Structure formats: C-alpha cells, structure tokens
Amino acid sequence: MRWFLLTLCLASSTLAWNCGIGKVSNLLSFAIAFPSQDLTAVNRCCQEHDDLIESCSRDEADHSFCKCLGNSEHWYVRTVVKPLFCISVNLYTKFNDWYNGNTVYLVNDCFHPKKFGYRNDW
C-alpha cells in the first residue's frame, strides 16, 4: 500500500497534473483518474477549466469542464471520473457562492439538480 501511494505521489508530480486545488485534492484526483488510460485528456480538461475560470464565470467553466470529460472516448472517464469530478467542482462553486453571500439554490434542503448545474447535455 505504501508503494502504491508513493508511486501515485511521484507520478502526479512528474506528470504536471493540473487537476485539484492543492496537494491532497491533486493526489486524490490523480488516483481517481489513473485507471482511465486517458490521463492526458483528463488533465487537459482540468487545465482548460482552470483557464476558463480566469475568463468567465465558475458555473460556465464547470459546465465546460464536465462537457469536456463527457466527450472522452473512454468509458471509465465518462462513467467514473466525470461524475466524481463534476460533483466536486460544482460543490466547490456552490460552497464558495454560499460562503461569499451569494444565492445558492436549495430545494427540500438539497441542491436542486437544474440549479446545481447538472444538465442532460453533459
């Protein structure tokens, strides 16, 4: 187990992995995406997401990010990586909105899917 974690740490740092906002989320995102056989495409989606955050709203960047992951040719990215990463970025965005005093849409004490950013076109 230690060797596996060490390998993940070394691989994520040597591959210039762009997913995640810190060391822990960077390592976790790499571990989730590692079995995908499409690390380059996932990493590209993460980099594009970071670039879009600089030029447009977080909601637009999150939507584009999820669409990018959904366009992958690999089933693992579409069925495992995309849902986990999309939930993560959307939760992060909604938490920041709430923390900064912006409106967060809730229905029955849960995030409403349509307001939360989940769309069928992903």
Describe the structure.
- The structure is a single chain.
- By secondary structure, the chain is mainly alpha-helical.
- The chain has one domain.
- It is built from six helices and two strands.
- It has helices at residues 2-14, 23-33, 39-55, 58-70, 75-99, 113-116; strands at residues 106-107, 110-111.
- A two-stranded antiparallel ribbon has the order 1-2.
- 23% of the residues are buried.
- Mean pLDDT is 79; it is low at 106-122.
Could you give the topology of this structure?
Blueprint: H1 2-14, H2 23-33, H3 39-55, H4 58-70, H5 75-99, E1 106-107, E2 110-111, H6 113-116
Antiparallel strand pairs: 1-2
Helix/strand/pairing category:
mainly alpha
Overall pLDDT, averaged?
A: 79
Major sheet? 2 strands, antiparallel
Spatial strand order of the main sheet = 1-2
Which word captures the global form? globular
Strand residues, percent: under 5%
The span between the termini is 35 Å
Number of helices: 6
Weakly predicted, low-confidence segments: 106-122
What would you report as the Rg, rounded to the nearest angstrom? 15 Å
H/E order of the elements?
HHHHHEEH
The number of domains is 1
**Strand tally, please?**
2
Kindly state the percentage of residues in helix.
55-70%
Keywords: Signal
Signal peptide: 1-16
Protein name: Domain of unknown function DB domain-containing protein
